Amino acid sequence: MKKLLFLRFAMGSLLLLGCGSQSINQQQEYRYEAGNPYGTGKWFMGREIANVMGFEGMEWLDRPERAKEENSSTLIRNMNIQPDDVIADIGAGSGYHVFKMAPMINKGQIYAVDIQEEMLNEIQKKANNKGVQNVTLIKGGEKSANLPENSVDKVLMVDVYHEFSFPKEMMASIKNALRPNGKIFLVEYRGEDPLIPILKVHKMTEKQAIKEMRAAGFQLKENIENLPWQHCMVFVKKES
Questions:
Q1: Nearest C-alpha neighbor of 238 from the set 222, 215, 205
Q2: pLDDT for 181
Q3: Is 29 within the bounds of a domain?
Q4: Is the pLDDT of residue 26 over 80?
Q5: Domain count for the chain
Q6: Residue 11: what pLDDT?
Q7: How would DSSP label each residue in 51-80?
């Protein structure tokens, strides 16, 4: 009788474990439901994915007041860039951060990754004008950053992660490219602050970011809260 009770208990425990893992997997699946007018109607882990800002907004990316609004020089200092770093700027846009980092790297390189050809053309144009030779352009896809395996020390994502159409797949590709001791600098407008003048669907809370990064195999090392409007969250690969 005791043996039978034990078997029933064991089977029940396995069923509960199975249900738990199933619910976790379900959380990581995409669902479709109307939401914010500026969203895609596609949801991931309780968050609506935002529409991608098109190349038509390039001028806004290079606006003169951006340095003050975002304190971009402090962000660059947060990254502790070394001369031999290999850095991937995912969603590099028109190269705003690329050309702030490039002079600091004389032995490494920067991968400027973007999904829009027009953005990459703009970066190439600027690189030619400035004589910058340590920037490599990469055309990203919806599901992959198309970076070489085990190739980068640091990944910078400024206000772009929330626009990934397939965040689960994109983060898997980025994890594959990140070296064992590499860091991800996830910069997003603070979703906890309603006073920040950015559309809600284009913000992220620290809690939501941790949840999604954890599912992708990363853990929060620190959140450097020294930017005016944005989180600067540093993620590393989970310890095994």
A1: 215
A2: 96
A3: no
A4: no
A5: 1
A6: 37
A7: PPPPGGGHHHHT-TTHHHHHTHHHHHHHTT
